[in-house]
């Protein structure tokens, strides 16, 4: 009995601790789902007295911010997502399957340097380089710089996926009469597709939330992404208009959520689904 | 249909020579088993035929074509991999018909030919499943089906049965032999299981250290092994090997060891000019060619009983002779009662002699 009581007590403490811990994550999310519908929202969490869409009406009136969200952010995050996913897959496949020695060192080296490349410290040289290429104030510049920064880690992760495919799959396809490109397309690609989806979502989220790089590389307000445009909801004095920022933030998170749900529904985040060996 | 030939083929991986100056001719429609211990170069030989590796030296021929420089795609081969290598994301039907898809066969014909082959291999009811949803034996059949569906000129099997349990293995072995004879396709079958090789092969090629040490029909390899390596590798338990020295005294020829002396009655002529007086040789005799005998029999030698193992239709009796073990296989339902000192008699028509270096001495 005593033993039983102690067990229950232990559980209670465990759940209490877990709840406390979880609240750190849940409260901001809760705020984000409630505040946008409250015309009198403050930074504290409180239920609106009256459920209203007025905040959203004012946000949609800000064409600069809306255009940043539905056009520029989608273009930049989508472009980098496609570029990163395709290049990382091809590079990982080549690195995994080539007989050249030292591909491990190349992969690890790239990952190491990439943390430097995207860091704030590299912004000046990156700016100068993009300037030299005449790409300042273009979407292409933002896409390229993000892609360069994300690729090494993406290659690193993809390589793990490719390494996990037994070579005999591809060899049996070769013997069956397939060309190398066909082997990649018919055999390797479908098997690493779940991995590619992980990379795609991860790359999209990274660019979607990136502030510094577009802020520095872009000039015209017509090209700024949402991460920068959110500052248009700040007052002249530099304090955020809580109501509008909340509404815009909710809109800002929706595409990421939708992308995640879509990928999960279409492919599932299964890692090595179906491979038995 | 076509035969397969190697002409002085070698393959090195850096400092390791996996295949060392190998030449052979495999005839059209023949099934040859490559047999040998782990690491002797069996898989490498198979991969050379498939074109998955290129030889370091020599040339490879399929039919009357020199395929040394031709990619796997151009060789028209069906191969069963050790791990089956079924594509996890495709159904059994798509797996089987993949070689046809690559050849541009229409979707309907692919499905019907896959169904036909699958039915003949008794997996016709699994076509819509995926490889992860069928048993090991069914995966093996699927893999065979994929290898035969496009009617290739040559079949290659790399230990296809090693992942199956003992009962399935016997069943699948008979099935592969039946299929190979029915289709009449030249086949090369890699295994390190000597019973499998004996059962399947028209000829066995025994490999050791990247070389083929003997290539002959199974019974010849079994009864007339080219050297002590082959003698020791085939048979379960393997051939007994007894090191002795030949002595000739006044018309009597003897095999002398520390623990025994055998009088080679009637063998004077056979050994004449082939083995010198005082030369060290190795006697090789299979367990089934040893019987329980008497002390005064000239062809018998003594030992201490070590173990008796009744196996049903036969009994294995192991005796220690000096510091080595010798095994007798006695047929019959009743295990013989033996104890203490045992005399083993050699049926001398089946006695083989090997030089000290291992190679067999051809007797008159
Ligand atoms: N890709 C490779 N790189 C380096 N060495 C290799 C390679 N493939 C095989 N070898 C070496 O060549 C030798 C023969 O290998 P192989 O796989 O042909 O042996 P096997 O007879 O099939 O053995 P097993 O019965 O264990 O499958 C071995 O010493 C092996 O280590
Ligand atoms: Mg092998």
Contiguous helical run count of chain B: 9
According to CATH, the homologous superfamily of the largest domain in chain B is P-loop containing nucleotide triphosphate hydrolases
List cofactors, ions and other ligands: adenosine-5'-triphosphate, magnesium ion
The number of distinct structural domains of chain A comes to: 2
**What's the count of strands of chain A?**
0
* Element string of chain B (H = helix, E = strand): EEEHEEEHHHEHEHEEHHEEEHEEEEEEE
User: Which runs of chain B of at least 5 residues are low in confidence (pLDDT < 50)?
Assistant: none
User: Widest sheet of chain B: strand order?
Assistant: 6-7-8-3-9-10
What does this entry look like structurally?
The complex is a heterodimer of chains A (277) and B (364). Chain A is mainly alpha-helical and 277 residues long. Chain A is built from eleven helices and no strands. In chain A, helix 3 runs parallel beside helix 6 and helix 4 (103-117) packs antiparallel against helix 6 (139-163). Chain A is globular and about 70 Å long. Mean pLDDT of chain A is 87; it is low at 271-277. Chain B folds into two domains: 4-233, P-loop containing nucleotide triphosphate hydrolases (Rossmann fold), CATH 3.40.50; 240-355, OB fold (Dihydrolipoamide Acetyltransferase, E2P) (Beta Barrel), CATH 2.40.50.140. The complex binds adenosine-5'-triphosphate and magnesium ion.
Topology summary:
The complex is a heterodimer of chains A (277) and B (364).
Chain A: H1 2-34, H2 54-61, H3 63-97, H4 103-117, H5 123-132, H6 139-163, H7 167-176, H8 180-209, H9 212-217, H10 226-229, H11 242-266
Helix pairs in contact in A: 2-11, 3-6, 3-8, 4-6, 6-8, 7-8, 8-11
Chain B: E1 4-13, E2 16-26, E3 31-35, H1 42-50, E4 57-62, E5 65-66, E6 77-80, H2 92-102, H3 107-120, H4 136-148, E7 154-158, H5 166-183, E8 186-191, H6 194-200, E9 203-208, E10 211-216, H7 218-223, H8 228-233, E11 240-249, E12 252-256, E13 261-263, H9 268-271, E14 280-285, E15 290-292, E16 300-310, E17 314-321, E18 324-331, E19 341-346, E20 352-355
Parallel strand pairs in B: 3-8, 3-9, 6-7, 7-8
Antiparallel strand pairs in B: 1-2, 1-4, 4-5, 9-10, 11-12, 11-14, 12-13, 14-20, 15-19, 16-17, 16-19, 17-18
Helix pairs in contact in B: 2-3, 2-4
The complex binds adenosine-5'-triphosphate (ATP) and magnesium ion (MG).
Residues 42-43 of chain B line the site of magnesium ion.
